[in-house]
């Protein structure tokens, strides 16, 4: 009795196992080899990518999930928000606030 390597559950488990063993490249290869991806499989890869600081790829995966019609759930949304928060300090450090006037406000009311 062997494993059905075409099973989505087996693929999901392989993605998770490779990540836990420190082999994110094989996790991605398993993901790419699955024709019918589901939400759990995407969430597994997304959290794996985040553990290896692949923030931009994790956020890109969220966009692909939406575009491919897989959708998203609590795990994928919270993982994406965490990824964005991890990348925000790097982005914000290069930004300089510029005061701007709030439309319809008093002349002396500006937002930094």
Report on the architecture of this protein.
The mean pLDDT is 79. A two-stranded antiparallel sheet has the order 1-2. 61% of the residues lie in helices and 4% in strands. Helix 1 runs parallel beside helix 3 and helix 4 packs across helix 5. A hairpin with an 8-residue loop joins strand 1 and strand 2. It starts with 7 loop residues before the first helix and ends with a strand. It is mostly helical and 112 residues long.
| Helical fraction | 55-70%
* Global outline: globular
Q: What spatial order of strands do you see in the largest sheet? A: 1-2
Q: Approximately how much beta-strand content do the residues carry?
A: under 5%
Radius of gyration, Cα only, in angstroms? 20 Å
Q: What's the tally of helices?
A: 5
Sequence of secondary-structure elements: HHHHHEE
Arithmetic mean pLDDT:
79
Number of strands: 2
The assembly state of the depicted protein chains is single chain
